[in-house]
Write a structure and sequence with these properties.
This protein has six helices and seven strands; from the N terminus they run βαββαβαβαβααβ. It is α/β, with parallel strands linked by helices. A seven-stranded parallel sheet has the order 3-2-1-4-5-6-7, with helices on both faces.
């Protein structure tokens, strides 16, 4: 797989279980990684590994769900790293328990803010960089639930379905600009939080963050130049 030594990669949700693995994967390939997190102090805990060849730039207190907060730090990114080449959106949130007809406005808005609006705001900020360069990659982390709704998870499924549809539309809009946009659809991700919430599950059937990171790196490499508007399933073991 190609090295990313001349690429600037922006990773949202970088302090999360998946985001950390994605950041490390790009650093090992030599990328300049802009790691975004909505809190302060967590990004300093990322273990970049002794084998990293890239450069890590940290941007904290970035709430991507709020569009009015974006302009204040876009210029900071550009001053520190220049124009972005790759956009990876790992921010996401899960909701379970409310039936559709009992769905609260707070849950619905939270799913829209984190699973949809964060993607819209991040791409609004940095897709113009890709257009200016005449090339680039965008990858969003969707979910298997985007393909079929399930009981008591209507808001989550609907928000992930919206995210998938947005990536498909964006891919069609940007194809002539030399930009590829794809969506990864993981099954249950093997994270400490998921293990704690589902202690009786068969963890061997879950997908690892490393498997998802490998897929993301492929989708943002030249090997994937012919792939755009795709929904890529990464489900782990059957």
């Amino acid at each position: 797989m190609e090295r990313f030594s001349e690429k600037v990669v922006i990773v949202s949700g970088a302090a999360g279980a998946l985001g950390r693995v994605v950041v490390r994967a790009y650093l090992r390939k030599g990328a300049t990684v802009c790691a975004l997190d909505h809190r302060e102090g967590r990004l300093g805990q990322i273990d970049v590994g002794a084998d990293h060849k890239g450069r890590l730039e940290v941007f904290e207190n970035i709430d991507l769900s709020q569009a009015d907060a974006i302009p204040s730090w876009i210029s900071s990114v550009h001053e520190r790293v220049g124009l972005v080449d790759v956009i990876v959106q790992t921010v996401g949130s899960f909701s379970y328990g409310e039936k559709v007809y009992e769905l609260s406005a707070a849950t619905w808005q939270k799913m829209l803010d984190i699973n949809v609006n964060a993607f819209l705001n991040l791409t609004a900020a940095f897709v113009p960089d890709l257009v200016a360069k005449g090339r680039g990659k965008v990858v969003a982390i969707g979910a298997k639930a985007a393909l079929k709704g399930g009981a008591k998870m209507g808001a989550y499924s609907a928000s992930k379905a919206a995210l998938l549809s947005l990536t498909e539309s964006m891919a069609a809009e940007l194809a002539s600009e030399g930009i590829q946009v794809n969506c990864v659809l993981p099954g249950t991700i093997d994270t400490p939080n998921n293990r704690a919430e589902m202690p009786k599950a068969d963890f061997s059937k879950w997908v690892s963050p490393e498997q998802i990171a490998d897929t993301i790196l492929f989708l943002t490499s030249p090997a994937s130049d012919a792939i755009t508007g795709a929904a890529i399933p990464v489900y782990g073991q059957p």
